[in-house]
From TrEMBL:
L-ornithine binds at N162, D219, S223, M224. The keyword Ribonucleoprotein does not apply. Belongs to the aspartate/ornithine carbamoyltransferase superfamily. OTCase family. Residues 4-142 form the Aspartate/ornithine carbamoyltransferase carbamoyl-P binding domain. Residues 150-297 form the Aspartate/ornithine carbamoyltransferase Asp/Orn-binding domain. This is Ornithine carbamoyltransferase. GO terms for cellular component: cytoplasm. Gene3D superfamilies: Aspartate/ornithine carbamoyltransferase. Carbamoyl phosphate binds at S53, T54, R55, T56, Q80, R104, H131, P132, C133, Q134, C259, L260, R287. Pfam families: OTCace (PF00185), OTCace_N (PF02729). It is found in: Cytoplasm. Pathway: Amino-acid biosynthesis; L-arginine biosynthesis; L-arginine from L-ornithine and carbamoyl phosphate: step 1/3. The lineage of its organism: Bacteria, Pseudomonadati, Pseudomonadota, Gammaproteobacteria, Oceanospirillales.
């Protein structure tokens, strides 16, 4: 049987992605009812983190435990990966010992190489280019709040980063329109924009991009690994803040999402996360349920 990886949303068909979102809602209900559901008993997830994490680490580790399995946290500080053991060798060794591997790293090609040599599913838990697990939780959050995202208009405000790239993939997979409001020089990956065609538009004016939108979302101005650019980015993104005032020009039923962590006073106003239109904490909580659905789907 060919092993399935989840390196980007393009690794799923639309049908599979929708099934995972529906399953996430079922798993959430089971979790709330404290029903024991352990289809992954004795299965193990290896978790390689080369960048910091709160939500991703805890949701994967708690998720594996709740599904009857367990997870091992691996940091470059105390594994041979950090001392230069080749990714190819690490993949061949680890995939004989665990049932899936989750990786958070910098360059996307590293996770691709790992997957090429792995005999078990590899899950992208964030690279410089993509954050597909987050998108499962985002679509679950929108669906819970307002129903299907199909045919809706989503506005991305700010940096054309890993989250923005994943929103472009999500627009194709879940069939929605995407307006991207970003300053010049901070666009998402051009090949993704080309592949999305008419579904995705770059609109420089935040107001124009947000008018009538059903979902408004943003992310930090400087991602992990861009700390040295932070000052220049502060200046470039000054006009790209989401606030309740901006939300007022979106659709009357619009919701606000943010993958978190957020920087209040930068990409969001001080009061945005607490606005009634914000569902960011439900969104964060859904990381647990969406990833449990993904683990059930991938680990055979
Ligand atoms: N949104 C997200 O991936 O959060 P963490 O960096 O805390 O995992
Ligand atoms: N774009 C952010 C997302 C963090 C969850 C980063 O890469 O740091």
């Amino acid at each position: 049987m060919t092993v399935r990886h989840f390196l980007t949303l393009n690794d799923l068909t639309s049908d599979e992605a929708l099934k995972i979102i529906n399953r996430a809602a079922e798993l959430k209900a089971l979790h709330k009812a404290r029903t024991v559901h352990e289809p992954l008993k004795n299965r193990v997830l290896g978790m390689i983190f080369e960048k910091s994490s709160t939500r991703t680490r805890v949701s994967f580790e708690a998720g594996m435990t709740q599904l009857g399995g367990s997870a091992i946290f691996l940091s470059p500080r105390d594994t041979q990966l950090g001392r230069g053991e080749p990714i190819e060798d690490s993949a061949r060794v680890l995939s004989q010992m665990v049932d899936a591997v989750m990786i958070r790293t910098f360059e996307h090609h590293k996770i691709q190489t790992f997957a090429d040599y792995s005999t078990v599913p590899v899950i992208n838990a964030l690279t410089d280019d993509y954050h597909p697990c987050q998108l499962l939780a985002d679509v679950q959050a929108y669906t819970e709040a307002r129903g299907s995202i199909q045919g809706k208009t989503v506005t991305w405000v700010g940096d054309g980063n890993n989250m923005c790239n994943s929103y472009i993939n999500a627009a194709k997979l879940f069939d929605f329109q995407l307006n991207i409001a970003c300053p010049e020089g901070y666009e998402p990956m051009s090949e993704l924009l080309e592949s999305a065609g008419d579904r995705v538009h770059i609109i420089r004016s935040v107001e124009e991009a947000t008018a009538g939108a059903h979902l408004v979302t943003t992310d930090v101005w400087a991602s992990m690994g861009q700390e040295e650019e932070a000052k220049a980015r502060m200046a470039a993104f000054r006009d790209y803040q989401v606030s309740p005032k901006l939300m007022d020009i979106a659709d009357k039923d619009a919701v606000f999402l943010h993958c978190l962590p957020a920087h209040r006073g930068e990409e969001v106003s001080e009061d945005m996360l607490d606005d009634p239109r914000s569902v960011v904490f439900e969104q964060a909580g859904n990381r647990l349920h969406a990833q449990k659905a993904l683990l059930e789907f991938l680990i055979r």
